[in-house]
UniProtKB/TrEMBL annotation, chains A, D:
Annotated keywords: 2Fe-2S, Electron transport, FAD, Flavoprotein, Iron, Iron-sulfur, Metal-binding, Pyrimidine biosynthesis, Transport
Record-level GO BP terms: 'de novo' UMP biosynthetic process
Cofactor(s), by name: FAD; [2Fe-2S] cluster
Family (UniProt): Belongs to the PyrK family.
Name of the protein in its database record: Dihydroorotate dehydrogenase B (NAD(+)), electron transfer subunit
UniProtKB/TrEMBL annotation, chains B, C:
Annotated cofactor note: Binds 1 FMN per subunit.
Taxonomy, superkingdom: Bacteria
Designated name of the protein: Dihydroorotate dehydrogenase
Gene symbol of the encoding locus: pyrD
Domain Dihydroorotate dehydrogenase catalytic: 4-286
InterPro entries: Aldolase_TIM, DHO_dehydrogenase, DHOD_1B, Dihydroorotate_DH_1, Dihydroorotate_DH_1_2, Dihydroorotate_DH_cat, Dihydroorotate_DH_CS, Dihydroorotate_DH_I
Stored Gene3D superfamilies: Aldolase class I (3.20.20.70)
GO MF annotation terms: dihydroorotate dehydrogenase activity
CDD domains xref list: DHOD_1B_like (cd04740)
Pathway the protein acts in: Pyrimidine metabolism; UMP biosynthesis via de novo pathway
EC number: 1.3.-.-
Keyword entries, A-Z: Cytoplasm, Flavoprotein, FMN, Oxidoreductase, Pyrimidine biosynthesis
Active site (UniProt): 130
Length: 259, 304, 304, 259
């Protein structure tokens, strides 16, 4: 069902620090939150930034429909994300949402959700929705080291969680592609979803393709508008350039050129 | 009641606020946010004779109070516009202008011809100032002879309002303005983007696939205002000003400098409802200043 | 140890960081804040043959990520510089360049001649790009024949390093660069300010007494970087880049685009010690990136 | 004695709201505060302003030498001053100071200090210093209405305080020039100091000139640097253009052209 896009002033209700680099913002809508599909994102206006002219695209991490709250997982990488990570309960958050398409949510099957870095964000809501629909959920989450590993509690509610860290300080040492879930048990999976650094997604896509398993990626192209007006965020597909912000961010790798 | 309508050389806009080409899609992208009919006019995405894929990704870089783009006129071609898009948007209760680009004069002519007689398209905006394409585009707009040639050629075939959009990347914008006025332009819009560039110091690479791109946003407003004022003082046809307009105050500054109408560009990305808010803001300013007719603002800057 | 010295066509700067004319006074204004000797060089205030009072107040307006100025070359004339200022600043352990302006070629020549043989002045920066004076100034710098004429005339009489400063208010900056290179420039500095304008919407008046003025600051950085890159690819003499440099990262971007040295301008107003901090920041960048010689950054932008 | 100019990070220790438009910031130096003369000002860097590229010049309102605190009276007129007025104890304040020349402080005589709007700021430290030196201090403070009138307590410590408001809601109704201190008792004064809106200062200067009484004005020209480097802040004097930031902000009206 098409959800009308809107600009709305949310109120921050909580700022939960996960680790040195990550926080989760809880943002409450004024009225009733519309239905959100996994994979959709928001565009946030960063107030008071001296170098943040454009909005910042951030995935919807999870939704608490009862309290009309949206959760946003934010990694501090530059001025914009640092200012967002400093927001406190009561502060306002100017959002355009809901933006983008969403992941396929089948009613059954064995699903592998592979996230790297802050790319784990949309996988939480996706995992929950998959479980609710009746699919089996397996997360595989990669991080640089245990210091910036996500809080896994929420993920564990929805399925099995595998972990890799580059330095081996938690889970399997190495990249997600070094984990048994991708190296050995991939053939048992019906579908792979992945979100994270480009190199990681391409590696995951390559093994999925080789194994002949459908794979959906969520791209993080540079965006100026987020709602299809500027044509800056394009990705090359078999049908020509497509907007990552409206025809994505989720693409089936079979549709992407060069993947 | 305040009077908001402005006349751009025979065509009446219900108010002076238009949206700028390339920043407003075909209007449809904004339907969720605003009533398009509340605007004075819209200029849709740059259209060429043939389908164009545009430039490679990345096409965008944020800069201080602005952005660079290198979209490169991605569009499905004028035939697609006429057959598929026009029927979808022709119900908008506002003037729809088509921004026309080309690599050769022949392409400009053919594209303009195909837009003749579309009832809800009162005019075209001739883009002779796009910095993001290898051939044509800006090269027409930075030298008088070619600007005259393309304007005159299109004027000969196109029956509606002919707005010509100038490039700021020139030594003397008044020279260009007079040239296109002489060649038959009904109005002049400016400015298109300034040619700029951005580098990632860490990766030592340009941030755009095309290395250089077009700079827009509030950073260019002082240059845009200056050029609007210069052109206003140099030609008789109406001037449509743009460049970094973010709010009603900016819009009023452009009118005071000589704009009959203004176009809102990059600001649409940051607040998709800003164009309609600017209409409201202009009204509020007029009430506050006891101005009954918006036309009295045009070129109304006071100099001792 | 990293090597920071750069050679601008025969003259050695101890590091690539200079300060821009008109933003650094005669250096003295910064003595409380920094050791001037830590800089690669300084360019002092625009100097003319005769005393000039400059433009009327107001001369300044803040803009998005930048400012407009209309100082208009206020200075006490070259004789006063030689007799009163030079003796006070000649002890600086850095290269002092004098920015020279004029209304006629004759004035440029006479001013330059008077600066010949000042031991601590290795060179002059020929300002053919000042947008804030009615005669001369920018008008020399936006047309090739006059740019060539003034450069050649000064070259004939001036014995030191001749840096020529280009205006960004031109259609093709490479044309200008090649012209002044051919006329004897030892190096080319760019960009001077972009011609802009600001209006007070409430008072309906221009914010500058001169209506238009020169735009500087981070807002112009994308345009400046683009022009530096274009000129670097068009001439053989060293390029000294400037325009919105606020920190070491910006400075490195300019070097990657082709600058042998850079000048810090408006940023000095916001942090009077920034120029020296930029020297330190470049060192830190080099250490982080395992670069031993700063010269390897010049034009080091990677393009596929 | 020449005080070296410096860039220093102060710490806000208090934000005292005076009325709807005015606040006083207490800013503590890291170490010992140098001697400050009345009339000097600071240039403040406004962090996180989206339209505050340049520093903001603000007069030194008062100095608490014992605690190394500087007091700044700020009127909220635009983005910069609003952001400054929102600073809270613990926040940092990046200042260049001390800037500008200062008022003449004779050791005796009857002084009239006329301030309008936020122009009352430098008169507090001036009044105190005059009293300490042995002069008699008379303040005449003008405001739009009682709502934005200054807290007079501090001023009253140093001398007599006359007040005017445009709407008569406090003190004498009208402009400062309508007050008996300027209309009748001006001839008893040895010197007039004035700071405030241009029109007010010119009116005060005119009556002082007519009465043949020395008059010093503190100008608020637009400044880009504040320390003599940009030549943007010039005022026309009998000796040509002078920098308001270094050769001012205090000028004797006899030296100014057109006053
Ligand atoms: C659809 C989408 C969903 C996203 N979801 C999230 C999310 O849930 N949580 C999160 O923390 N981040 C997410 N991002 C990335 C986020 O938008 C950027 O990290 C953010 O814009 C950086 O802003 P900044 O001002 O902090 O950094 P800047 O100072 O602008 O840049 C700092 C660094 O971040 C990188 N960066 C900037 N923009 C992007 C971008 N669009 N994509 C990737 N890297 C970028 C730059 O390369 C730069 O090196 C998402 C991006 C997209 C396109
Ligand atoms: C030497 C000096 C001392 C000053 N002392 C004080 C003081 O003690 N307390 C105080 O509140 N203000 C003082 N000012 C004025 C103060 O600098 C401005 O009000 C402030 O810069 C406005 O910044 P803004 O971002 O809030 O407003 P902006 O958005 O920049 O401007 C808002 C309005 O303020 C006016 N304004 C801007 N700059 C100045 C200026 N330099 N002078 C006068 N008006 C200006 C503009 O006309 C504009 O209409 C002083 C100015 C100078 C030059
Ligand atoms: C992403 C983007 C795409 C653009 N595409 C076009 C275009 O197709 N044709 C055109 O004439 N101008 C195009 N422009 C220029 C704008 O119409 C406008 O002239 C310019 O952006 C300055 O206005 P602004 O600062 O308000 O954005 C584009 C601008 C942007 C930012
Ligand atoms: C207040 C001011 C005065 C200037 N005066 C001169 C001048 O006298 N001669 C000159 O060549 N450039 C002058 N410039 C231009 C600068 O040297 C520089 O080219 C320009 O500001 C761009 O650099 P920036 O963005 O780093 O300031 C002046 C700039 C400013 C802001
Ligand atoms: S970000 Fe503008 S079209 Fe996708
Ligand atoms: S403000 Fe720069 S010289 Fe006075």
């Amino acid at each position: 069902m098409y959800m009308k896009k809107r600009v709305e002033l949310f109120t921050v209700t909580r700022n939960r620090r996960i680790n040195n680099e990550y926080i989760v913002l809880y943002a409450k809508a004024n009225g009733e939150l519309p239905d959100i599909s996994p994979g959709e994102f928001v565009e946030i206006k960063v107030e008071n930034g001296q170098n943040t002219f454009l909005r910042r695209p951030i995935s919807i991490h999870e939704v608490h429909q009862e309290t009309n709250e949206m959760l946003l997982l934010i990694q501090e990488v530059g001025e914009g994300s640092r200012l967002l990570a400093a927001l406190m309960p009561g502060d306002k958050l100017d959002l355009i949402y809901p933006l983008g398409n969403s992941f396929t949510v089948p009613k059954s099957g064995r699903m592998l959700l592979v996230g790297g870095g802050v790319g784990v964000a949309p996988l939480l809501i996706l995992g929950r929705r998959l479980r609710e629909e009746g699919a089996e959920v397996n997360f595989l989450l990669g991080a640089r080291d245990r210091e910036i590993l996500m809080d896994l509690t929420d993920y564990k509610q929805h399925g099995l969680v595998g972990v890799t860290t580059e330095d081996g300080s938690a889970g399997v040492k190495g990249y997600v592609t070094d984990h048994p879930l991708l190296k050995e048990r991939l053939k048992d999976m019906d579908r792979v979803y992945t979100c994270g650094p480009d190199a990681m997604m391409r590696a995951v896509a390559a093994v999925a393709k080789e194994a002949g398993i459908p794979c959906e990626v969520s791209l993080e192209n540079m965006m100026a508008c987020g709602f299809g007006a500027c044509l800056c965020c394009v990705v090359e597909t078999r049908e020509g350039n497509k907007n990552t912000c409206t025809e994505g961010p989720v693409f089936n790798i079979d549709d992407l050129k060069g993947w | 009641m305040v009077k908001l309508a402005v006349d751009i050389n025979g065509y009446l806009l219900k108010n002076p606020v238009m949206t700028a080409s390339g920043t407003f899609g075909f209007g449809e992208e904004y339907e969720d946010f605003i009533d398009i009919g509340a605007l004075g006019g819209i200029v849709v995405k740059g259209t060429t004779l043939h389908h164009r894929e545009g430039n490679a990704y990345p096409r965008m870089a944020e800069t201080a109070s602005g952005m660079l783009n290198a979209v490169g006129l991605q569009n499905k071609g004028v035939d697609h516009f006429v057959s598929s898009i026009y029927p979808r948007i022709k119900h908008y209760d506002t003037g729809i202008f088509v921004n026309v680009s080309g690599s050769t004069i022949e392409e400009y002519i053919q594209t303009a011809e195909k837009l003749n007689g579309l009832e809800q398209i009162p005019g075209i905006e001739l883009n002779i100032s796009c910095p993001n394409v290898k051939e044509g585009g800006m090269s027409f707009g930075v030298h008088c002879p070619s600007a005259i040639a393309v304007t005159r050629a299109v004027r000969d075939v196109y029956k509606g309002h002919l707005m010509v959009k100038l490039s700021p990347n020139v030594t003397d914008v008044t020279e260009m303005a007079r040239a296109v006025e002489g060649a038959g332009a009904d109005s002049i819009s400016l400015i298109n983007t300034l040619l700029g560039m951005a580098i990632d110091a860490e990766k030592r690479r340009p941030l755009l696939s095309t290395v250089t791109g077009g700079l827009s946003g509030p950073c260019i407003k002082p240059v845009a205002l200056r050029m609007v004022w210069q052109v206003y003082n140099a030609v008789k046809v109406p001037v449509i000003g743009m460049g970094g307009i973010m709010n009603a105050t900016d819009a009023i500054e452009f009118m005071l400098a000589g704009s009959t109408a203004i176009q809102v560009g990059t600001a649409n990305f940051i607040d998709p409802s800003i164009s309609v808010q600017i209409v409201e803001g202009i009204k509020a300013y007029m009430l506050r200043h006891d101005i009954t007719d918006v036309n009295s603002l045009i070129g109304g800057m006071l100099i001792d």
